From TrEMBL:
Binds 1 zinc ion per subunit. This is Mannose-6-phosphate isomerase. It catalyses: D-mannose 6-phosphate = D-fructose 6-phosphate. It is an enzyme of class 5 (isomerase). It holds the Pfam family MPI_cupin_dom. GO terms for biological process: carbohydrate metabolic process. The keyword Electron transport does not apply. Belongs to the mannose-6-phosphate isomerase type 1 family. One of its GO terms (molecular function) is mannose-6-phosphate isomerase activity.
Amino acid sequence: MNEPIFLQSVFQERIWGGQKLKQLFGYDIPYEHTGEYWAVSAHPNGQSIVKSGPYQGMLLGELWNSHPELFNSSSTVFPLLTKLLDASDDLSVQVHPNDAYAGAHENGELGKTECWYIVAAEPGACIIYGHEAKTKHELESMIAAGNWDSLLTKVPVKAGDFFYVPSGTIHALGKGIVVLETQQSSDTTYRVYDYDRKDKDGNTRELHLKKAIDVTSVPQAYQAVSYDTKEIENGVITTFVSNSFFTVEKWNVDGKASFPEAKQYTICSVIDGNGELSIDGQSYPLAKGDHFILPISSGDFQLNGKLELIISHE
């Protein structure tokens, strides 16, 4: 039987970050403006490290390459990245490429389709989610004119909301929001607008308008969202999205809930509560802010306690 793989990961300093990852999850954050925690990552720009067990100290990318039998995947690289983001200020308005464009223009990098689960949101918090341009020419003209209020679509958010953000979607987290993001393992972002703010050295951050216009979907297409909810004994499983990029679910457990062995590796993030994972006669304490991977051949398992988890897999 394969043990669960608990991970310790990398914090990223961001101009828009803050202290909420410490306040909400108890993390020992390294920066005044801590914006991101790459909780489950094999991306070269921030890799997770195995905390314990037979693979202790290994980078997740190393584990992926040296022990493919743990994952049962046809992907050549670990294809997903799970992040927590603290938007203590507005993020830049941005857009991400698809696989084909990123492969051609970003040295073979994956594209970036992502999704957000809103962990916390201050009253009045909003995201930018899409745009109002009907043609590429109109998009270019509105960007050139700085006509942001007419171009960008704002959506109010609250804790518990979920948003699917395919590549080609102009988007931005607004101030006062904490999200768990599941995405393709990519670090390619094209900035469209950054509020003319300056970094700590007094420089405005680079924009990438040509590439952004190239990859933006016009007109904006919104996919209808319908969640699938299934009740199990002492638990509820909500499937937010399931497609060729990823499946993302929320598991609410209150008591002892049993789950069958997964056919593929499963990424698990505890976003609230505490309890324990029981598997193959062993118990592992779980607390808010823990992240782990269940490899294949782990066997059936139980979650016991009062827990909320975001679950993802290919």
